[in-house]
Amino acid sequence: MTDFASTKALFHLPEGVIYLDGNSLGPLPRAAAARVQHRVQEEWGELLITGWNKAGWMAEPGVLGNRIGRLIGAEPGHVVLGDTLSIKVYQALAAALEMRPERRVILSDSGNFPSDLYMAEGLIKALGRGHELRVVAPQEVAGAITDEVAVTLLTEVDYRTGRLHDMAEITRRAQDAGALTIWDLAHSAGALPVDLVGCGADFAVGCTYKYLNGGPGAPAFIYVAPRHATCAAPALSGWLGHAAPFAFEAAYRPGEGIERMRVGTPPVLAMAALEAALDIWEGVDLTDIRAQSIALGEMFIAEVEVRCPMLTLASPRDPSARGSQVSFQFEHGYAAMQALIAQGVIGDFRAPDLMRFGFAPLYIDTEDVKEAARRLAHVMQNRLWGDPVYQARATVT
């Protein structure tokens, strides 16, 4: 059994703050600052450019990729780290379309994160081959998979409501129809068990700054199934995806396997923070994470529905049908969330009216949940959200 009291002690959490926004940005692992400082002073400072070899900087995207791969049910050697999630979506989507040249439809859903859809729109425009981005309601995805579809592009957990797609079933349906699958694991990796191998997924991408606690701007990752590793064409033919970067050849040759999905220079300082965060996962069982996050979410829903009848549950009622977050609808949700943050409970808001709360058992416990519900009730029952100071919109919501 995972000792969640021990894992909580491994994070820096400001005094008096209950942090329910790890689904947007994970908190600071206590070991991260020292790890980054070591990389800056002892590696960059003392080794200078020799750190690429002596400190293993160049190999680290694959090393960390394997550590993430263990958390998402991937085969060793088929996950690599680097760049941003949008870049990885673009790479996976371009490769999938190249593998299905006779088909023109990219199937996604209206609950997908907008950036994924933006990348699809941009790629379609760049290719100029008449591809179509077909967006349906989340519950209609399975029925919309036809022989026109080249690839499904789906985020497993809906960023707004936490609704959870059935990865195994949708992957089966897509592949039976001759389509490929891309799974965005931004709200899955570190939040619930993922079995890419068992589901037969073709491609997967994800970020490391949410449940994996890699820090703001932490690099993304990409998975390519072994059966596609030598034929997936990297649309972004970056220097570090070359078969021999330091041969400095004039023409591009893709690297072997997942290495071809590398693009730019590894973010060496950011990887140090992520490395410290991933150390915490060495003693964690994801089935325990899932069970505890469900328990915490159920407790929060029960408390809020008793104390705050003006809030409407927007997440699936069935905990097995949602990820590790709970969302409530409220007309003045933005202002209410700002008032709640002022009371020391940090969640976030998604337009037009959703208040989101994430439940990461690594650092959230039952007492946190009870106290968060109490403070939320104080905000709602006293209409603190009506104060104009909470209604001025900030850039990040």
From TrEMBL:
It comes from the Bacteria. InterPro entries: Kynureninase, PyrdxlP-dep_Trfase, PyrdxlP-dep_Trfase_major, PyrdxlP-dep_Trfase_small. Pyridoxal 5'-phosphate binds at L85, S86, F113, P114, S115, D116, T155, D184, H187, Y209, W239, T265. The keyword Metal-binding does not apply. Its cofactor is pyridoxal 5'-phosphate. The keyword Hydrolase applies. Its EC number is 3.7.1.3. GO terms for molecular function: kynureninase activity; pyridoxal phosphate binding. The modification N6-(pyridoxal phosphate)lysine is found at K210. It catalyses: 3-hydroxy-L-kynurenine + H2O = 3-hydroxyanthranilate + L-alanine + H(+); L-kynurenine + H2O = anthranilate + L-alanine + H(+). GO terms for cellular component: cytoplasm. Catalyzes the cleavage of L-kynurenine (L-Kyn) and L-3-hydroxykynurenine (L-3OHKyn) into anthranilic acid (AA) and 3-hydroxyanthranilic acid (3-OHAA), respectively. Homodimer. This is Kynureninase. It comes from Roseovarius gaetbuli.
